[in-house]
Amino acid sequence: MTSDGDDREHVDPASHASDLLGADHQSPGAARSRNTRYRMSLDLGALDTDFLVLTDAGEHEFRFSGQAVSNEDKIRIEDLRGHVLYEARAHAARKQPRIVVVDQVGTEVGSVVRQPVGVLRDHFTIEMADGQLFSIEGSVTKHEFSIVGQDGVRLAEISRKWFRARSSYGVEIIPGQQDALLLATLVVLDQMIQGAL
Predict the structure, then answer these.
(1) Angstrom distances, CA of residue 45 to CA of 30, 33, 158
(2) In the chain, how long is the greatest CA-to-CA distance?
(3) Closest CA to 25 of 175, 184, 180, 131
(4) Whole-number Å distance between alpha carbons of 190 and 142
(5) Which end of the chain has fewer CB atoms within 10 angstroms, the N or the C?
(6) Whether the Cβ atoms of residue 94 and residue 78 lie closer than 8 Å to each other
(7) How far apart are CA 100 and CA 102, in angstroms?
(8) d(CA 105, CA 25)
(9) What is the DSSP string of 88-133?
(10) Domain 17-196, what architecture?
(11) How far apart are CA 183 and CA 156, in angstroms?
(12) Which secondary-structure segment (H or E) carries 136?
């Protein structure tokens, strides 16, 4: 999944079968008992340095690779050991109506889909490879929205009110989710929004 000469470590799929079964072994989502809030940056698609995703408990959980954006035109989320978790094409997200997110071995795990509903308005959904469909409810351009499952459960809340930094927004995810995958789709969504503006 990386270009020649990339020294970032990729997960051996044989030793990390849980990822292929759909569980982020690096993500706290499957084990924790309370919602976790993450601090994200509005500028991830333009960064040429790594961005560490911080939780509300003050812990770093994931890393978005600046090298992947600048050298490979990819949105890439890794664990703190440098293992690639998910990737998507960065530049394509600004142009295409559907952007695929793949795991560390290149298997499609989900996609972010743009559906025009008016001249100046788009509707977005997240389609998972296992058939689940998540809807986006609220204002994506203002980063005040929710990710809602097919059963109506709010899987994640996105808001700028939790952090003071102007270039930051928060993502609060309920337990039992693939946190890294949801965060990756949100960065893809950011890029799609920027392309529509």
Answers:
(1) 27, 31, 18
(2) 48
(3) 180
(4) 11
(5) C
(6) no
(7) 6
(8) 15
(9) EETGGGGT-SEEEEEETTS-EEEEEEEEEEETTEEEEEEEETTS-E
(10) Beta Barrel (2.40)
(11) 10
(12) strand 133-139
d(CA 134, CA 97): 16
For the segment 96-136, what is each residue's pLDDT rounded down to a tens digit?
A: 899 999 999 999 999 999 987 765 677 999 999 999 999 99
Give the length of the chain: 197
Q: Is the pLDDT of residue 14 over 70?
A: no
Instruction: Write out the two tokens for 165.
Output: 């930094």
CA 178 vs CA 82, 115, 117, 160, 163: distances in Å: 18, 24, 29, 22, 23
What span, in angstroms and rounded, lies between the C-alpha atoms of 155 and 60?
21
Give the CA distances from residue 8 to residues 20, 37, 71, 76, 167, in Å, rounded to whole numbers and listed in that order: 20, 27, 13, 11, 27
Collect all residues with Cβ–Cβ distance below 8 Å to 157 and sequence separation of at least 6.
Answer: 146, 171, 172
Helix, coil or strand: residue 146: strand
Q: What are the structure tokens assigned to 55, written together?
A: 């939780």
pLDDT higher for 4 or 15? 4
Q: pLDDT-derived band of residue 67, with 50, 70 and 90 as boundaries?
A: confident
| Separation CA 74–CA 174 (nearest Å) | 27
Do residues 173 and 38 touch, judged by C-beta distance below 8 A? yes
Q: Tokens 């949801």 sit at which residue?
A: 182
CA distance 149 to 128: 11
